[in-house]
Write a structure and sequence with these properties.
single chain, 183 residues, mainly alpha
């Protein structure tokens, strides 16, 4: 049974956001765009990749590798659009090198991200098992006491420890004769 919380969501979101930005810069450079984008384009790219990473981290991966590929494709398209909005952007058509870079980066990136998720799950599971085993070894042995057996000594000890003052009042036989006394 799978856990309702996905511990690898942050890793997946950071990886998709970072790789979307990196591939957008690489493909943009291969496509004939400015090799070094200006500050406003990089700020827009950073903001877009951060939003992509947060959105991907908040989604549950329902479709496996295909879903990760779709998230990467959307992230790269948004990253490329962010770089295309820079004032120094002059190319208006997509070159074959740019398209090939995007198309190769999508499945390769998705496979790497899914492998990192599986590796992280295995590492976390191994650490948890190790800590549980370490805790079982270091746990102190419980002091098991023998069950007490009631005997006459326990009754005698209770009488010796008791204050000796019980319920106050006349004995039961004296209570019957008090009714005979004239008032």
């Amino acid at each position: 049974m799978r856990s309702p919380t996905d511990h690898t969501a942050r890793l997946r979101g950071a990886a998709v956001g970072a790789s979307s930005g990196a591939v957008a810069i690489l493909a943009h450079g291969l496509g004939g765009g400015a090799t070094l984008a200006d500050g406003s384009a990089l700020a827009l790219l950073l903001a877009a990749c951060t939003v992509i990473g947060v959105v991907v981290a908040s989604l549950r991966p329902r479709h496996g590798l295909a879903g990760t590929m779709g998230m990467l494709a959307a992230g790269q398209a948004i990253g490329h659009a962010a770089l295309s909005m820079s004032p120094g952007h002059h190319h208006h058509s997509s070159s074959p090198a740019m398209l090939i870079a995007h198309l190769v980066a999508i499945p390769v990136g998705a496979i790497v991200i899914r492998a990192a998720e599986a590796g992280m799950r295995r590492a976390v599971t191994s650490v948890r098992r190790f800590l549980l085993a370490l805790g079982a070894v270091l746990a102190p042995q419980s002091n098991r006491m023998r069950p007490r057996v009631a005997d006459d000594r326990a009754v005698a000890r209770r009488l010796l420890v008791s204050p000796g003052i019980g319920r106050r009042g006349p004995p039961a036989t004296a209570a019957r004769y008090t009714d005979l006394v004239p008032a």
